[in-house]
Amino acid sequence: MKNYPPQFKAAAEALPQARPEATIRQVAADLGINPETLRNWVRAARANRPRGRWAEAPAEPPTPVDAVRELEEEREILSKAAK
Questions:
Q1: What confidence tens digit (pLDDT) does each residue in 14-46 have?
Q2: For helices 24-31 and 35-48, what crossing angle results, to 10°?
Q3: Does residue 37 lie within any of the structural domains?
Q4: How many domains is the chain built from?
Q5: Domain for residue 39, yes or no?
Q6: Element spanning 82, H or E
């Protein structure tokens, strides 16, 4: 049984909703995971999501471009602090 990092799970759970034209089977194949695993993650995420009129929308995971940009900013700050 494989263990996946929480960031990977969060991103994988969001993909079927972000790509409504794709099926869970297609998304799972793109990620290289079992479709039932992805289906279980999506179901668990939906069950944990608050319901009701005032429920907040779930936060979207950062895109790879945003993550790279954030790392570059952190590196710049650290290099300035080291000088």
A1: 888 888 888 999 999 999 999 999 999 999 888
A2: 110
A3: yes
A4: 1
A5: yes
A6: helix 64-82
CA–CA distance, 79 with 21 (Å, rounded to integer): 44
In the structure encoding, which two tokens stand for residue 32, read together? 């290289």
Amino acid sitting at position 23: T
Six-digit token string for 63: 């895109």
What distance in Å separates the CA atoms of residue 54 and residue 52, rounded to the nearest whole number?
6
Q: How far is CA 8 from the centre of its chain?
A: 6
> In the structure encoding, which two tokens stand for residue 57, read together?
């929308």
- Count how many residues are written for the chain: 83
Q: Give me the domain span that covers residue 26.
A: 6-50+60-82
- For the domain that residue 19 is a member of, what is the CATH number? 1.10.10.60
- pTM to 2 decimal places: 0.56
